[in-house]
Design goal:
The structure is a homodimer of 338-residue chains. By secondary structure, chain A is of the alpha/beta class. The first copy, chain A, contains twelve helices and twelve strands. The first copy, chain A, has three domains: 53 residues, 434 Repressor (Amino-terminal Domain), CATH 1.10.260.40; 128 residues, Response regulator (Rossmann fold, 3-Layer(aba) Sandwich); 131 residues, Response regulator (Rossmann fold), CATH 3.40.50.2300. The interface between A and B is large, with 48 and 48 residues. Chain A binds a DNA duplex (30 and 30 nucleotides) through helix 2 and helix 4. Chains A, B: GO terms for molecular function: DNA-binding transcription factor activity; transcription cis-regulatory region binding.
DNA sequence: ATCACTCACGATAACGTTTTCGGTGGCGGT
DNA sequence: ACCGCCACCGAAAACGTTATCGTGAGTGAT
């Protein structure tokens, strides 16, 4: 690997001047020497060692992001927003998949801290787990104490900058729409109950139903994996236990798509017999058949805002940006049959 | 930021011993000192500076990946495979999105080289662009000359280790299935013609059709963006020009989904009047309606193999692993109407 | 012709680790 | 009591870069 000294030697200058011309500028260098250095760089195919650079000028450049899984469209979208403003500001983005493993999440915080990132963005739901939360907050506090910035997306447990999708409000939209359509026998296909996202959406939904005098008994809620197959599984269990359901409210679009697949397999007409609701409005939601009625969360926007917050050094006081949910009516829902 | 010297000072030892106990092992250290160091680490919340470590022991740990866009399911799947074996081997994965911009691709090669990554994986189609190819190969060669490893996925232009999906063979499967179903008026919805993936799939398709005495005139091929909206656009153009088509062959699933959306919007029954074929078998393909007939590429497997190749230092001779395509029949295709 | 004075460049000290290389102490063997 | 040996630890040199600080030569003015 060619080093800066190699370049300097070949150009017949000192490493210092070589560094100067390669950095672009700052201090003046004669045109002739600049030429020679540039040529040496080209001949040796020299690329600066990023680690040495980072070490020398302690200029934290990169930004770390911890998400559940970039393959998951929910996080793909958020990541897109993060990427956009990060690269706009010339920052390198380090993406880490925690696969919702708290242990791994802690490890990644350490790793990113070791990488001297300028900021850490934690995206995705928090957990109902006091021990873990304390541990995580401890690590984050240590990071912040040394000048690092932390921004969370959709997690209550951290007390710093945050962008929060209105999960409760979204649950409310869902509940009111269910009532408007006259559904009374409603099954809920939910993700793992340790996720705060799930409980938030559920409480919003429950509150809205209560406004119309409807309860949401626990046996009408099935908790499963927060993905397509979990959705199919939970829907099957729900229908087996209670064949009279007229609506399935899935707490994310992946699960809703699993629900649709299962209903199609059982030849249950949607929405004539059973209506299906999703949550998130992933791009795929409009392409399934019937197109999915869902609660839209501005995912890309959430990512962009979070990165803007993370990169803006201002405001000692924690800033919380709340982003509203929006109901998107499509073809998978209709009035309750009677 | 607490440094190793801080830890050493607080523990009353030299930085050398502190380093020894933190590294886990190598040289023996008395139990008592080890205790003291560990406690100092805990108290100071010390995390080693990764850049300094990388610099000191020039142990290249991370691996870089350049993909088009991780949000794109095609690359999400590949990335999943890459991730799996990378983390299995304790490697950190750096993911870079080129958004199919050759310029950015070159930049990322430099960046990854600067990061001293152990290997670079280039995923996605190559370009029909001799100048760019020469430039890229130059940069890659420089990287390999200094001990870096390069593995490509689905790109012909690099002469090292490679994992190649059988795009031509897949095109052939498509062509033979079209003939088997009796289609003669076939429109092709293609991505940008500069992508070698597109031309490979097209030549395979063309060859198979020719075997059955069918031609594929250029006006039956529409080139558009390699995504959903491009698929809808190309399908519209195709149908407007030639209403009598009985089959649409899209060269990836995203485009096929766009085609389905457009056909639904125009109330064209699929597959009764027009059959739709996809390519890649992304997870979403089975969830659209009608479920998409497509050519499956083992995407996760491709990623896993590529990473295995990249991390296995053996074999000076370039290894090329070819992975077969497979036809997946679903509901979006049927016999040609007459 | 001397003197400040700028200007372009080179030494050199960081940055935070790892690692090699001596050096100290204690131990058993003759 | 002396010598070698071993086990453990600290001093110091790397790693590749940036940034500070001099230093020499060249300028203009006096």
């Amino acid at each position: 690997m060619a080093t800066l000294s190699d370049v300097a030697r070949r150009a017949g200058v000192s490493p210092a001047t070589a560094s100067r011309v390669i950095n672009g500028s700052s201090k003046p260098v004669t045109e002739e020497l600049r030429e020679r250095v540039l040529q040496a760089v080209a001949e040796l195919q020299y690329v600066p060692n990023a680690h040495a650079q980072l070490l020398a000028r302690s200029h934290r450049g990169a930004v770390g992001v911890i998400v559940h899984d970039v393959s998951d469209p929910y996080f793909s979208e958020i990541t897109r927003g993060l990427q956009r403003v990060a690269t706009d500001q010339g920052r390198l983005l380090m993406i880490c998949n925690s696969y919702r493993d708290p242990e791994r999440e802690l490890e990644y915080v350490e790793l990113l801290r070791g990488q001297q990132v300028a900021a850490i963005v934690l995206a995705g739901s928090g957990y109902h787990d006091a021990d873990f939360t304390r541990l995580l907050n401890g690590k984050l506090a240590a990071y912040e104490a040394t000048g690092g910035r932390v921004t969370v997306i959709g997690r209550h447990e951290h007390s710093g900058d945050a962008v929060m999708p209105d999960n409760r409000g979204g649950g409310g939209l869902l509940g009111r729409e269910l009532c408007r359509l006259g559904h009374e026998h409603i099954g809920v296909v939910a993700g793992p109950r340790v996720l705060t996202t799930i409980t938030d959406r559920l409480t919003g939904l429950r509150a809205a139903l209560a406004e119309h005098g409807l309860g949401l008994p626990e046996h009408r809620i099935r908790y499963a994996d927060f993905d397509r197959d979990g959705g199919a599984e939970a829907t099957a269990a729900l229908l087996d236990a209670e064949p009279g359901l007229t609506a399935i409210a899935a707490l994310n679009d992946s699960m809703a798509i699993g629900a649709l697949a299962l209903l199609r397999a059982r030849a249950v007409p949607v929405p004539q017999q059973v209506s299906v609701f999703g949550f998130d409005d992933m791009p795929m939601a409009r392409d399934v058949t019937p197109a999915l009625t869902t609660v839209r969360l501005p995912l890309v926007e959430m990512g962009a805002r979070a990165m803007a917050l993370a990169l803006d050094p201002g405001a000692a006081s924690p800033r919380v940006e709340s982003l509203a949910a929006e109901l998107i009516r499509r073809d998978s829902t209709g009035p309750a049959p009677r």
